Amino acid sequence: MNSKVNFFFEKESKWQKEYKALRSLILDCGMVEELKWGKPCYTENGNNVVLIHGFKEYCALLFHKGALLKDPENVLVQQTENVQSARQIRFSSLQEIIDLEATIKAYVYEAIEVEKAGLEVEMKKTAEFNMPDEFAEKLNADANLKEAFEHLTPGRQRGYLLYFSQAKQSKTRAARVEKYIPVIMEGKGLND
């Protein structure tokens, strides 16, 4: 146990019992406990393997490379369609954790082996993401904008493409594009 993480387990939460049970299970697997993103994160040789976090309707174990796990029990959940690597096991009660103890440990041990083997999730390339027409038109019309966008890191490019694409209406997509053209021209990402 890492004393820096204790506050997470001591603070008032509707998932307090579940968090403590998950902590115990993971520590039984020999993981190193750290605090990352304000959450308990468990590592192997300094690499993130699994994280405990909670939401309104459930608490979860997030496997950072969950897409590489076999999932024979079909319990892993992809949070959204855009999450490429991480997968969750979700819980809505302490009893679910107790009932799935052997399964949870098996998945944690497999995740540790994935990390030890140095396996990596093959991520989609930026070109595979949807390019909204509204943004494509701006890029085609402005060589400086196109050059600025191409000089952004792939992660920043994907961030913009996802954000622009999420809008359902064309006028909203166009407004988002217009708003961020100056930011792109400065070489900054969506959240910089």
What does this protein look like?
It is a single chain. The chain is built from eight helices and five strands, in the order ααβββββαααααα. The chain has helices at 6-10, 16-28, 94-99, 101-116, 133-141, 143-151, 154-166, 170-185; strands at 32-36, 39-44, 47-54, 59-63, 87-91. It has a five-stranded antiparallel β-sheet.
Short description:
This protein has helices at residues 6-10, 16-28, 94-99, 101-116, 133-141, 143-151, 154-166, 170-185; strands spanning 32-36, 39-44, 47-54, 59-63, 87-91. The protein is α+β, with helices and mostly antiparallel strands and 192 residues long. A five-stranded antiparallel β-sheet has the order 1-2-3-4-5.
> What would CATH call the architecture of the largest domain?
Alpha-Beta Complex
Could you tell me the mean pLDDT? 93
Principal-axis shape equals elongated
H/E order of the elements? Answer: HHEEEEEHHHHHH
List keywords for this structure.
five-stranded antiparallel β-sheet; single chain; 192 residues; Aspartate Aminotransferase, domain 1
List the helices and strands and how they pair.
Blueprint: H1 6-10, H2 16-28, E1 32-36, E2 39-44, E3 47-54, E4 59-63, E5 87-91, H3 94-99, H4 101-116, H5 133-141, H6 143-151, H7 154-166, H8 170-185
Antiparallel strand pairs: 1-2, 2-3, 3-4, 4-5
Helix pairs in contact: 5-6, 7-8
